[in-house]
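USER: I would love a firmer grasp of how sequence relates to backbone shape in proteins. This is the protein in question:
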Amino acid sequence: MNQASRSWCSGPVSRRGFLEAGSLLTGSLGCCDILRSRAAAAGSTNANKPDDTAVILIWLLGGPSHMETYDLKPDAPAEYRGELNPIDTNVPGMQICELLPHHARVADKFSIIRSITHEDSQHAQGSVRFLSGRHTPSVDPISEYPTLGPIIAKMRENQNVGVPNHVASSIRAYGDGSAYLGESALPFVVGGNPGADSFSLPNLSVSDSLRGRMDDRIGLLKAFDKFRRDADTTASMLSLDTFNQRALNLLTSDKARQAFDLKRESDETRDRYGRHEWGQRALLARRLVEAGCSFVRMDMNSPNIPGTDDKRIHNNWDIHAINGDLYYDLSVRMPPFDRAVAALIEDIYARGLDRKVMLIVAGEFGRTPRITVQKGTRSGNMQPGRDHWPGAMSVLVSGGGARMGQIIGSTTDKGEYPKDNRLDPNDLLATVYRFMGIDQHHAFLDRSGRPMPILPFGKPIAELG
């Protein structure tokens, strides 16, 4: 694992002072600046009224092992099959890992793609490849190409439903970014645990102590805009008041506050998702798409389970032997993951969202089929792990109006490469864009003025049509 991968996660992006700063992002743009820059580019996006569809991406940074999640190989030699066993699901012939019993009970509501493969085994490159559809020689953790969330945000930038149309638990995943689409396509950030008692969104929630300051804020906006009008005589300034009003409407939106307020859910529902960061993030994702948000990315990286041996657990799914003990790590990581994802799938169908919402659960690649055993740098013990492997990976898809309960493609006996129905990450992206009503051939101008199509290639997956 390279140094960039080791240092990726420094904690959730701070939310402090968003209201006072007037910003929905961790960058320098204020809310009205975001709205203005989005509208300025409206001519380059889809002019058709967007469909009422949405995507939730549960992002598993580091690359989860397909051999310990959705593509077990019980008949392979011991150094390949590992220590975990497959279990049956409620779909005949579909088996998954024994640590995913909640998944097993809702397997008729998801499909597993087992035959996606690509060529990029470094984290940033693999993420760029999976999320943008392009290969890059760069190992910069910020993508030089726009990725899935920012593209959807740009294509839906004129949608105004009272909630942000692009929300994520971090400003960027590793290898993620808006590139030449600009900061306006970056997400509204909701870090930390949205279910914690101490959680609040100061950028949306106007507390009693701040209500008296709203007049000052409106006055500040007006004064600031007067200064800009004096300095800028272009016709674009004529619509500035509209953007300021929309910004303030979002900052004080009852609909937005309600969507982000998990206390409006029953205790039973919150318990079903799990009273931990991953479970409450999954619940928030459902609430947001139900309220009209177009794209939600929720990271599930460190399980943060009290009382566990953190010297044997890695802070994401990149579980090399030097990082953590693969099977101890998974014994801690998989139960909250299982509960959160299964509850989200169950809710999507129970609430009639399965034709409106497509859920994707994935990381940037799979893990080496052959297990390695090495001394852990923190535990000091010999322990098992798996390394980077883009040759084969598994992806879970739910909803999207498609037929579920499918296994799409297969891998060789040792889980090394696709055996049939070989698919590319671009095929999955093409499937997502088709579902969202976005033309994958639509082009944006890059920083040098060249037209760049959303996808350079890729064909929607027939089984998910």
